[in-house]
């Protein structure tokens, strides 16, 4: 009997395997969110260092006058351009990972994947909708009610699923994996 079940799993293509994954619960989502919070924080620190270097260089060559500010950090704190720059960094982080493999660093650690109901990767527009409607993670509380679908997932028409160990450990993931499989 177990041999038959093993053969049945092997005959499913990758798209069918992704479609059969269960939806993620709140605790797994929260764990991935915390992991990503550390990754995004580190990325924002690097972006801040780069911005400080650019402002110092611009000040030294006379493009920016910092006399009205206490220091470079005060200048950046009052800059809407800097705030927009940091927002673009965050949007780029999530947009890139969600559209390329369906997983951020934290989601990979918790074996989660955001995908369309057919198992394909979400589009960049869907990722923007997810970010805009997530309310900084508070949209995940909707998972407690009904069909285990977060507010942002409903609006972006996607789902977050828990991958099996086999799907999570698969090393050949490049974009839409079931499409890559058919090219061989």
Shape: elongated
Biggest sheet architecture = 2 strands, antiparallel
Tally of extended strands? 2
Helical content (DSSP H or I, runs of 4+) = 55-70%
- Strand arrangement across the biggest beta sheet: 1-2
Rg over C-alpha atoms, rounded to the nearest angstrom: 21 Å
Roughly how many Å apart are the termini? 31 Å
DSSP strand (E) fraction? under 5%
> What is the element string, with H for helices and E for strands?
HHHHHHEHHEHH
Low-confidence segments, ≥5 residues, pLDDT <50? 176-184
- In DSSP terms (H or I, runs of 4 or more residues), the helix count works out at 10
Look at the helices and sheets and give the structural class: mainly alpha
Q: pLDDT average, as an integer?
A: 86
What descriptors fit this protein?
mainly alpha, disordered C terminus, single chain, 184 residues, 60% helix
What does this structure look like?
This protein is mostly helical. About 60% of the residues lie in helices and about 5% in strands. It contains 10 helices and 2 strands. It has a two-stranded antiparallel ribbon. The model is unreliable at about 175-184 (pLDDT under 50). α3 (about 25-60) crosses α5 and α5 (about 80-100) packs across α7 (about 125-135).
Would you kindly provide a brief summary of this structure?
The protein contains 10 helices and 2 strands.
List the topology elements.
Layout: H1 2-11, H2 14-19, H3 26-60, H4 72-77, H5 80-100, H6 105-109, E1 112-115, H7 124-133, H8 151-156, E2 159-162, H9 165-169, H10 177-182
Antiparallel strand pairs: 1-2
